[in-house]
Design brief:
50% of the residues lie in helices and 10% in strands. The chain has 371 residues and is mainly α. The protein is globular and about 70 Å long. This is DUF222 domain-containing protein.
Protein backbone atom coordinates (compact mmCIF):
# COMPACT_ATOMS: atom_id res chain seq x y z
CA UNK A 1 0.00 0.00 0.00
CA UNK A 2 1.33 3.45 -0.94
CA UNK A 3 2.28 5.58 2.05
CA UNK A 4 0.29 8.81 2.29
CA UNK A 5 2.18 12.14 2.36
CA UNK A 6 0.98 12.73 5.93
CA UNK A 7 2.16 9.32 7.12
CA UNK A 8 5.51 9.75 5.35
CA UNK A 9 6.02 13.16 6.97
CA UNK A 10 5.24 11.77 10.42
CA UNK A 11 7.66 8.87 9.89
CA UNK A 12 10.46 11.20 8.80
CA UNK A 13 9.84 13.52 11.73
CA UNK A 14 10.11 10.66 14.20
CA UNK A 15 13.34 9.50 12.56
CA UNK A 16 14.76 13.02 12.69
CA UNK A 17 13.85 13.40 16.37
CA UNK A 18 15.54 10.10 17.16
CA UNK A 19 18.68 11.19 15.27
CA UNK A 20 18.78 14.44 17.25
CA UNK A 21 18.47 12.44 20.43
CA UNK A 22 21.54 10.42 19.47
CA UNK A 23 23.51 13.65 19.00
CA UNK A 24 22.51 14.79 22.49
CA UNK A 25 23.84 11.55 23.98
CA UNK A 26 27.20 11.43 22.24
CA UNK A 27 27.82 14.84 20.64
CA UNK A 28 30.74 17.13 21.37
CA UNK A 29 30.30 20.58 22.89
CA UNK A 30 30.37 22.13 19.43
CA UNK A 31 27.77 19.67 18.14
CA UNK A 32 25.46 20.31 21.10
CA UNK A 33 25.65 24.07 20.58
CA UNK A 34 24.85 23.57 16.90
CA UNK A 35 22.02 21.25 17.91
CA UNK A 36 20.30 24.09 19.78
CA UNK A 37 20.23 26.21 16.63
CA UNK A 38 18.97 23.25 14.62
CA UNK A 39 16.17 22.58 17.10
CA UNK A 40 15.06 26.23 17.01
CA UNK A 41 15.06 26.18 13.21
CA UNK A 42 12.95 23.01 13.19
CA UNK A 43 10.55 24.41 15.79
CA UNK A 44 9.97 27.51 13.69
CA UNK A 45 9.34 25.42 10.57
CA UNK A 46 6.89 23.25 12.48
CA UNK A 47 5.18 26.32 13.88
CA UNK A 48 4.77 27.59 10.33
CA UNK A 49 3.23 24.27 9.28
CA UNK A 50 0.91 24.38 12.29
CA UNK A 51 -0.20 27.93 11.51
CA UNK A 52 -0.87 27.00 7.87
CA UNK A 53 -2.94 24.01 8.99
CA UNK A 54 -4.94 26.16 11.44
CA UNK A 55 -5.62 28.72 8.71
CA UNK A 56 -6.77 26.02 6.27
CA UNK A 57 -9.07 24.39 8.83
CA UNK A 58 -10.54 27.76 9.77
CA UNK A 59 -11.17 28.65 6.09
CA UNK A 60 -12.92 25.33 5.58
CA UNK A 61 -15.08 25.85 8.66
CA UNK A 62 -14.03 22.52 10.15
CA UNK A 63 -14.22 23.67 13.77
CA UNK A 64 -17.46 25.60 13.24
CA UNK A 65 -19.06 22.46 11.76
CA UNK A 66 -18.22 20.71 15.03
CA UNK A 67 -19.98 23.35 17.09
CA UNK A 68 -17.05 25.59 18.07
CA UNK A 69 -17.40 29.35 17.77
CA UNK A 70 -13.79 29.80 18.92
CA UNK A 71 -10.91 28.23 17.00
CA UNK A 72 -8.61 28.60 20.00
CA UNK A 73 -11.09 26.68 22.17
CA UNK A 74 -11.16 23.86 19.61
CA UNK A 75 -7.36 23.74 19.47
CA UNK A 76 -7.15 23.73 23.26
CA UNK A 77 -9.47 20.73 23.47
CA UNK A 78 -7.85 18.91 20.55
CA UNK A 79 -4.20 19.38 21.48
CA UNK A 80 -4.23 20.11 25.20
CA UNK A 81 -2.86 23.62 24.71
CA UNK A 82 -3.37 26.48 27.11
CA UNK A 83 -5.75 29.00 25.58
CA UNK A 84 -2.88 31.52 25.35
CA UNK A 85 -0.84 29.14 23.20
CA UNK A 86 -3.83 28.30 21.04
CA UNK A 87 -4.67 31.98 20.61
CA UNK A 88 -1.08 32.73 19.60
CA UNK A 89 -1.37 30.35 16.66
CA UNK A 90 -4.82 31.62 15.69
CA UNK A 91 -3.49 35.18 15.61
CA UNK A 92 -0.58 34.09 13.44
CA UNK A 93 -2.96 32.26 11.09
CA UNK A 94 -5.06 35.42 10.76
CA UNK A 95 -2.06 37.66 10.11
CA UNK A 96 0.59 35.80 8.08
CA UNK A 97 -1.33 33.43 5.79
CA UNK A 98 -3.13 34.33 2.55
CA UNK A 99 -6.80 35.21 2.87
CA UNK A 100 -9.73 34.43 0.62
CA UNK A 101 -12.12 37.27 -0.19
CA UNK A 102 -15.90 36.97 -0.42
CA UNK A 103 -15.53 36.62 -4.19
CA UNK A 104 -13.11 33.72 -3.80
CA UNK A 105 -10.06 35.77 -4.81
CA UNK A 106 -6.91 34.93 -2.83
CA UNK A 107 -5.62 38.01 -0.99
CA UNK A 108 -2.16 38.55 0.49
CA UNK A 109 -1.52 38.17 4.21
CA UNK A 110 -2.43 41.12 6.41
CA UNK A 111 1.22 41.31 7.49
CA UNK A 112 3.09 40.43 4.29
CA UNK A 113 6.59 41.42 5.46
CA UNK A 114 6.08 39.53 8.72
CA UNK A 115 4.79 36.54 6.76
CA UNK A 116 8.01 36.51 4.73
CA UNK A 117 10.35 36.52 7.73
CA UNK A 118 8.18 33.96 9.54
CA UNK A 119 8.24 31.65 6.53
CA UNK A 120 12.00 32.08 6.31
CA UNK A 121 12.51 31.15 9.97
CA UNK A 122 13.73 34.64 10.92
CA UNK A 123 10.78 35.30 13.24
CA UNK A 124 9.16 33.16 15.91
CA UNK A 125 5.49 32.86 16.78
CA UNK A 126 6.06 35.32 19.63
CA UNK A 127 7.51 37.83 17.18
CA UNK A 128 4.46 37.48 14.95
CA UNK A 129 2.15 37.95 17.93
CA UNK A 130 4.09 41.03 19.01
CA UNK A 131 3.98 42.68 15.58
CA UNK A 132 0.24 42.01 15.31
CA UNK A 133 -0.31 43.55 18.75
CA UNK A 134 1.72 46.67 17.97
CA UNK A 135 -0.03 47.23 14.64
CA UNK A 136 -3.44 46.51 16.15
CA UNK A 137 -3.17 49.37 18.64
CA UNK A 138 -5.31 52.50 18.50
CA UNK A 139 -2.25 54.58 17.64
CA UNK A 140 -1.40 52.32 14.71
CA UNK A 141 -4.98 52.59 13.45
CA UNK A 142 -4.49 56.33 13.08
CA UNK A 143 -1.53 55.93 10.72
CA UNK A 144 -1.96 56.39 6.99
CA UNK A 145 -1.88 53.17 4.93
CA UNK A 146 1.61 54.06 3.72
CA UNK A 147 2.86 54.67 7.27
CA UNK A 148 1.26 51.46 8.52
CA UNK A 149 2.83 49.40 5.73
CA UNK A 150 6.22 50.99 6.34
CA UNK A 151 5.99 50.32 10.07
CA UNK A 152 5.14 46.67 9.42
CA UNK A 153 8.17 46.29 7.17
CA UNK A 154 10.44 47.86 9.80
CA UNK A 155 9.06 45.65 12.56
CA UNK A 156 9.53 42.53 10.43
CA UNK A 157 13.12 43.52 9.69
CA UNK A 158 13.85 43.86 13.41
CA UNK A 159 12.36 40.47 14.32
CA UNK A 160 15.67 38.70 13.74
CA UNK A 161 17.52 41.21 15.93
CA UNK A 162 15.24 41.74 18.92
CA UNK A 163 13.54 39.49 21.42
CA UNK A 164 9.72 39.75 21.38
CA UNK A 165 9.76 42.01 24.45
CA UNK A 166 12.37 44.29 22.90
CA UNK A 167 10.42 44.35 19.65
CA UNK A 168 7.26 45.32 21.54
CA UNK A 169 8.97 48.32 23.16
CA UNK A 170 10.72 49.36 19.94
CA UNK A 171 7.57 48.98 17.87
CA UNK A 172 5.44 50.97 20.33
CA UNK A 173 7.98 53.81 20.19
CA UNK A 174 7.99 53.65 16.38
CA UNK A 175 4.21 53.90 16.15
CA UNK A 176 4.10 56.70 18.71
CA UNK A 177 6.66 58.68 16.72
CA UNK A 178 4.64 58.23 13.53
CA UNK A 179 1.37 59.12 15.27
CA UNK A 180 2.46 62.64 16.11
CA UNK A 181 -1.00 64.20 16.31
CA UNK A 182 -2.52 61.56 18.58
CA UNK A 183 -6.25 60.95 18.88
CA UNK A 184 -8.70 63.51 17.51
CA UNK A 185 -10.25 65.65 20.27
CA UNK A 186 -14.00 65.22 20.72
CA UNK A 187 -15.51 68.70 20.64
CA UNK A 188 -19.12 67.53 20.55
CA UNK A 189 -21.32 69.11 23.15
CA UNK A 190 -23.13 66.75 25.50
CA UNK A 191 -26.81 66.32 24.84
CA UNK A 192 -27.79 64.98 28.24
CA UNK A 193 -29.17 61.69 26.92
CA UNK A 194 -29.79 58.68 29.17
CA UNK A 195 -31.38 55.82 27.28
CA UNK A 196 -31.24 52.05 26.90
CA UNK A 197 -32.71 49.98 24.06
CA UNK A 198 -33.20 46.19 24.26
CA UNK A 199 -34.15 44.43 21.03
CA UNK A 200 -34.91 40.72 20.96
CA UNK A 201 -33.92 38.62 17.94
CA UNK A 202 -36.22 36.00 16.36
CA UNK A 203 -33.53 33.33 16.72
CA UNK A 204 -33.03 34.08 20.40
CA UNK A 205 -30.73 36.48 22.19
CA UNK A 206 -30.83 40.13 21.37
CA UNK A 207 -29.08 43.48 21.14
CA UNK A 208 -28.54 46.13 23.81
CA UNK A 209 -27.69 49.69 22.91
CA UNK A 210 -27.46 52.53 25.37
CA UNK A 211 -26.03 55.89 26.28
CA UNK A 212 -25.69 57.56 29.69
CA UNK A 213 -24.61 61.18 29.82
CA UNK A 214 -25.44 61.28 33.51
CA UNK A 215 -22.03 60.56 35.03
CA UNK A 216 -23.41 59.06 38.23
CA UNK A 217 -25.65 56.62 36.35
CA UNK A 218 -22.86 55.55 34.02
CA UNK A 219 -20.31 55.20 36.84
CA UNK A 220 -22.67 52.92 38.77
CA UNK A 221 -23.08 50.61 35.77
CA UNK A 222 -19.39 50.72 34.87
CA UNK A 223 -18.32 49.93 38.43
CA UNK A 224 -20.44 46.78 38.51
CA UNK A 225 -19.35 45.59 35.06
CA UNK A 226 -15.68 46.39 35.62
CA UNK A 227 -15.67 44.49 38.90
CA UNK A 228 -16.73 41.28 37.16
CA UNK A 229 -15.25 41.72 33.66
CA UNK A 230 -11.57 41.39 34.52
CA UNK A 231 -9.67 38.48 32.87
CA UNK A 232 -10.17 35.34 34.91
CA UNK A 233 -6.72 33.90 34.25
CA UNK A 234 -3.60 34.81 32.32
CA UNK A 235 -4.83 32.81 29.33
CA UNK A 236 -8.35 34.28 29.27
CA UNK A 237 -8.59 35.02 25.53
CA UNK A 238 -12.00 36.74 25.56
CA UNK A 239 -12.11 40.22 24.10
CA UNK A 240 -12.98 43.18 26.31
CA UNK A 241 -16.41 43.28 24.70
CA UNK A 242 -17.03 39.59 25.41
CA UNK A 243 -15.91 39.95 29.03
CA UNK A 244 -18.13 42.96 29.59
CA UNK A 245 -21.15 41.31 27.97
CA UNK A 246 -20.80 38.20 30.13
CA UNK A 247 -20.19 40.35 33.21
CA UNK A 248 -23.46 42.23 32.66
CA UNK A 249 -25.37 38.96 32.17
CA UNK A 250 -23.76 37.49 35.31
CA UNK A 251 -24.73 40.49 37.42
CA UNK A 252 -28.31 40.37 36.13
CA UNK A 253 -28.45 36.64 36.80
CA UNK A 254 -27.24 37.17 40.35
CA UNK A 255 -29.94 39.78 40.93
CA UNK A 256 -32.59 37.42 39.58
CA UNK A 257 -31.39 34.70 41.92
CA UNK A 258 -30.91 36.73 45.08
CA UNK A 259 -32.78 40.04 45.04
CA UNK A 260 -35.84 40.20 47.34
CA UNK A 261 -39.25 40.68 45.81
CA UNK A 262 -39.36 44.22 47.14
CA UNK A 263 -36.41 45.05 44.88
CA UNK A 264 -37.29 42.84 41.92
CA UNK A 265 -41.02 42.04 41.66
CA UNK A 266 -42.17 38.75 40.22
CA UNK A 267 -42.71 38.71 36.45
CA UNK A 268 -45.57 36.62 35.15
CA UNK A 269 -46.03 35.06 38.58
CA UNK A 270 -42.57 33.47 38.61
CA UNK A 271 -38.97 34.56 39.11
CA UNK A 272 -36.23 32.42 37.57
CA UNK A 273 -33.72 31.41 40.24
CA UNK A 274 -31.53 28.54 41.49
CA UNK A 275 -31.97 26.47 44.63
CA UNK A 276 -29.12 28.28 46.80
CA UNK A 277 -28.22 25.33 49.00
CA UNK A 278 -27.90 23.03 46.02
CA UNK A 279 -25.77 25.55 44.14
CA UNK A 280 -23.43 25.74 47.13
CA UNK A 281 -23.14 21.95 47.11
CA UNK A 282 -22.31 21.90 43.39
CA UNK A 283 -19.81 24.73 43.88
CA UNK A 284 -18.12 22.93 46.78
CA UNK A 285 -17.73 19.78 44.68
CA UNK A 286 -16.67 21.32 41.36
CA UNK A 287 -14.64 24.32 42.64
CA UNK A 288 -15.66 26.45 39.65
CA UNK A 289 -16.14 25.34 36.04
CA UNK A 290 -15.70 21.57 36.00
CA UNK A 291 -14.52 21.40 32.38
CA UNK A 292 -10.89 20.19 32.23
CA UNK A 293 -8.41 22.99 31.80
CA UNK A 294 -10.87 25.82 32.48
CA UNK A 295 -10.55 27.03 36.06
CA UNK A 296 -13.10 29.88 35.92
CA UNK A 297 -14.39 30.47 39.46
CA UNK A 298 -17.87 29.56 40.64
CA UNK A 299 -19.04 33.17 40.62
CA UNK A 300 -18.70 33.10 36.82
CA UNK A 301 -20.51 29.79 36.38
CA UNK A 302 -23.97 28.38 35.80
CA UNK A 303 -25.39 25.08 36.99
CA UNK A 304 -26.12 22.70 34.10
CA UNK A 305 -28.59 19.81 34.19
CA UNK A 306 -26.80 16.79 32.68
CA UNK A 307 -30.14 15.22 31.81
CA UNK A 308 -32.21 18.30 30.91
CA UNK A 309 -34.94 19.07 33.42
CA UNK A 310 -37.45 19.45 30.59
CA UNK A 311 -36.71 15.81 29.73
CA UNK A 312 -37.31 14.65 33.27
CA UNK A 313 -33.80 15.24 34.61
CA UNK A 314 -33.90 15.75 38.38
CA UNK A 315 -32.50 18.83 40.09
CA UNK A 316 -30.12 16.78 42.23
CA UNK A 317 -26.40 16.92 42.88
CA UNK A 318 -25.80 13.79 40.79
CA UNK A 319 -27.44 15.44 37.76
CA UNK A 320 -25.81 18.85 38.05
CA UNK A 321 -22.45 20.23 37.00
CA UNK A 322 -20.97 23.72 37.26
CA UNK A 323 -19.94 25.25 33.93
CA UNK A 324 -18.78 28.69 32.84
CA UNK A 325 -20.82 30.27 30.08
CA UNK A 326 -18.30 29.27 27.41
CA UNK A 327 -18.37 25.58 28.31
CA UNK A 328 -22.09 25.65 29.02
CA UNK A 329 -22.64 26.73 25.43
CA UNK A 330 -20.15 24.12 24.27
CA UNK A 331 -22.03 21.28 25.97
CA UNK A 332 -25.25 22.38 24.27
CA UNK A 333 -23.81 23.00 20.80
CA UNK A 334 -21.06 20.39 20.27
CA UNK A 335 -20.59 16.64 20.64
CA UNK A 336 -18.93 16.95 24.07
CA UNK A 337 -20.88 15.14 26.81
CA UNK A 338 -20.64 15.18 30.59
CA UNK A 339 -21.53 12.65 33.24
CA UNK A 340 -21.03 12.10 36.97
CA UNK A 341 -18.77 9.18 37.84
CA UNK A 342 -17.56 8.30 41.33
CA UNK A 343 -19.19 11.48 42.51
CA UNK A 344 -17.27 13.80 40.18
CA UNK A 345 -17.98 15.25 36.73
CA UNK A 346 -16.09 13.86 33.77
CA UNK A 347 -16.27 14.93 30.15
CA UNK A 348 -16.26 12.76 27.04
CA UNK A 349 -14.67 14.45 24.01
CA UNK A 350 -16.04 13.87 20.51
CA UNK A 351 -14.29 11.27 18.37
CA UNK A 352 -12.64 13.85 16.11
CA UNK A 353 -10.72 15.12 19.14
CA UNK A 354 -10.02 11.72 20.70
CA UNK A 355 -10.95 8.62 18.66
CA UNK A 356 -10.89 6.53 21.85
CA UNK A 357 -13.02 9.11 23.69
CA UNK A 358 -11.10 8.83 26.92
CA UNK A 359 -12.95 10.61 29.75
CA UNK A 360 -11.33 13.83 30.97
CA UNK A 361 -11.56 15.47 34.37
CA UNK A 362 -10.44 18.81 35.64
CA UNK A 363 -7.46 18.56 37.98
CA UNK A 364 -8.59 19.02 41.59
CA UNK A 365 -5.47 19.42 43.75
CA UNK A 366 -7.46 19.42 46.99
CA UNK A 367 -8.34 15.74 46.34
CA UNK A 368 -4.73 14.60 45.93
CA UNK A 369 -4.04 11.97 48.56
CA UNK A 370 -7.69 11.64 49.53
CA UNK A 371 -8.92 8.13 50.18
Amino acid sequence: MTESPSAAAQRLLVQAAEALGEVMESGSDVELVALLSTCETVVRRLDRATVDAVAALERRGVFAERGYTSVSAALSDLLGWERLEARRRVVAAEQVTPRVGLDGVVLPARLPATAAVFAGGRASLRHVETIARVLGSDAAARLSPQQWTGAEAQLAAKAGLYTPSELQAWGAALVEALDQDGAEPDDRSPSGVNELHLTGLPSGGGRIKGRFDDAAMFDAIAAVVDATARPLTGDDDRTVGQRQAEALADVCGYVLDHAPTAVLPESGGRRPHLTDGLRRAVAARDRGCAHPGCGRPGSWCEVHHIVPWEHGGPTRLDNLVMLCRVHHRQIHSTDWTVRIRDGLPEFIPPKWIDPEQHPRRRALPHLVGAA
